[in-house]
Q: What sequence folds into this?
C-alpha cells in the first residue's frame, strides 16, 4: 500500500491529439450554426428546396455525418498504406478532373464545370485532388530525396504533373483550387529540403505566370478590376465585394446578433458558401471573426507540430503529409478570408469546415483523420510500440 501511495498509477495518455479534435469540432459547430443562419432566406424562397428553412441545415448536417464516418474509416489506414497508393490516388484524381470536362458527364453551375453528378450528391473532384496532391507531393519528395540537391532533375517531373493538373483546373475554370494545389506542391518540396535555387526562380516566375493568366481571361480581369475599386461599379463588377464589406461594417465589435444579418437577405450572393465569413462578421462582429481566425491558426500550429514530431522520429512521409495538410487548410482559409475582407480578388473557394458544401466538408474531415493517424503513430513510436 505504501508503494502504491508513493507511486500512484499514471493517467492514461490519450492516443490522439485531443486539442486538434476539439478545434475541428468547434469549427464544425460554428459552421453548422452559421450555414443555417445564412441560408434561411434562400431556402425559404427556393422552389427546389421545397421552401423549407432547414433545407441547407439538414444537408450540411448530413455532409458532416458522412465526413465523420469517412474520417473514422480513414483513421484506420496506416500512413504506409497512404504512401503506397499515393501515386494511384493522384492518377485517379486526374481522371476525375478529365471526366468533369466531358459534356454530359460534368455538371455546369454558374458557368463553371466543376461537378460530377452522383444522383444523390454532386462530387467536386478538385476537393479530392487537394488531398491527393498532399499525399503525392509527400511521396514524391521522399522518393526523390537522393537527388534533392540537383537543380532541375527532381523539379521538372513535379512541374509537368502540376502543369497538367493546373491546365485541367483552369479549363473548368477553378483558379482557386489550382492556387491551393500549387501551394501544396511547392511548400512540400521546400519542406522536403529541395534545392533552394528553384524556389528563388519561382518567386520571380510565379507572379509573371499569374499575371499572364489574369490578362488572358476576360472574367478574371473583371474580377481584378472589381477588387481594385468595388465602389466604382457597386451594382456590377464590385457587387459581391461591396456587400461583403457592408456586412463587415455593420458587424462592428459584437455584431447585430445571430440571425440579424440583412446582407443574407438576397443582397450578398453565395452567403452560405463562399461568403459565409461576411455573414459571420455581420452577426457576430469582430469577436466572432477573431474566434474563427484563432481556431484556424491553432489548427495549423497543431498540424505543423505533429509533422515536426514525425520528422524527429525520422518518418519523413508522415511529416510532409502533416505539413502539407497544414499548408492546404491554411492557404485555403487565408484566401477565403482575404476575399471576404476585400484583401484578395474573388475566388470560388469555401472556408474549410464552415462553408456549405458536401465534397469540401467530407474531404476536410478525411484530411483531419489522416493528421490524427500520424499523431497516433507518433505516440506509439515514442512508446516503442508497433504502428
A:
Amino acid at each position: 500500500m505504501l508503494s502504491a501511495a508513493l507511486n500512484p498509477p499514471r493517467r492514461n495518455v490519450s492516443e490522439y491529439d485531443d486539442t486538434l479534435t476539439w478545434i475541428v469540432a468547434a469549427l464544425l459547430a460554428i459552421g453548422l450554426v452559421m450555414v443555417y443562419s445564412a441560408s434561411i432566406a434562400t431556402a425559404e424562397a427556393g422552389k427546389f428546396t421545397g421552401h423549407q428553412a432547414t433545407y441547407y441545415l439538414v444537408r450540411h448536417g448530413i455532409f458532416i455525418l458522412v465526413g465523420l464516418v469517412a474520417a473514422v474509416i480513414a483513421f484506420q489506414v496506416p500512413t504506409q498504406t497512404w504512401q503506397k497508393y499515393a501515386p494511384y490516388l493522384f492518377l485517379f484524381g486526374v481522371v476525375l478532373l478529365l471526366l468533369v470536362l466531358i459534356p454530359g458527364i460534368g455538371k455546369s453551375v454558374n458557368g463553371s464545370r466543376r461537378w460530377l453528378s452522383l444522383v444523390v450528391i454532386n462530387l467536386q473532384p478538385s476537393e479530392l485532388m487537394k488531398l491527393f496532391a498532399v499525399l503525392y507531393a509527400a511521396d514524391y519528395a521522399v522518393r526523390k530525396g537522393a537527388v534533392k540537391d540537383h537543380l532541375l532533375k527532381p523539379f521538372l517531373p513535379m512541374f509537368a504533373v502540376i502543369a497538367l493538373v493546373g491546365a485541367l483546373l483552369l479549363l473548368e475554370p477553378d483558379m482557386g483550387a489550382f492556387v491551393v494545389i500549387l501551394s501544396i506542391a511547392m511548400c512540400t518540396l521546400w519542406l522536403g529540403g529541395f534545392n533552394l535555387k528553384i524556389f528563388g526562380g519561382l518567386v520571380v516566375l510565379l507572379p509573371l505566370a499569374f499575371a499572364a493568366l489574369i490578362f488572358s481571361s476576360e472574367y478574371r480581369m473583371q474580377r481584378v478590376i472589381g477588387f481594385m475599386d468595388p465602389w466604382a461599379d457597386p451594382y456590377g463588377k464590385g457587387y459581391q465585394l461591396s456587400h461583403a464589406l457592408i456586412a463587415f461594417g455593420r458587424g462592428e465589435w459584437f455584431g447585430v446578433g445571430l440571425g440579424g444579418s440583412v446582407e443574407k437577405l438576397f443582397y450578398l450572393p453565395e452567403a452560405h458558401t463562399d461568403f459565409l465569413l461576411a455573414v459571420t462578421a455581420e452577426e457576430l462582429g469582430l469577436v466572432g471573426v477573431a474566434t474563427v481566425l484563432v481556431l484556424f491558426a491553432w489548427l495549423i500550429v497543431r498540424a505543423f507540430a505533429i509533422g515536426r514530431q514525425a520528422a524527429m522520429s525520422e518518418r519523413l512521409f508522415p511529416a510532409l503529409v502533416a505539413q502539407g495538410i497544414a499548408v492546404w487548410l491554411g492557404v485555403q482559409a487565408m484566401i477565403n478570408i482575404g476575399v471576404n475582407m476585400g484583401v484578395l480578388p474573388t475566388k470560388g473557394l469555401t472556408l474549410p469546415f464552415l462553408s456549405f458544401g458536401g465534397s469540401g466538408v467530407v474531404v476536410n474531415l478525411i484530411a483531419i483523420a489522416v493528421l490524427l493517424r500520424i499523431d497516433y503513430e507518433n505516440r506509439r513510436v515514442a512508446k516503442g510500440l508497433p504502428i
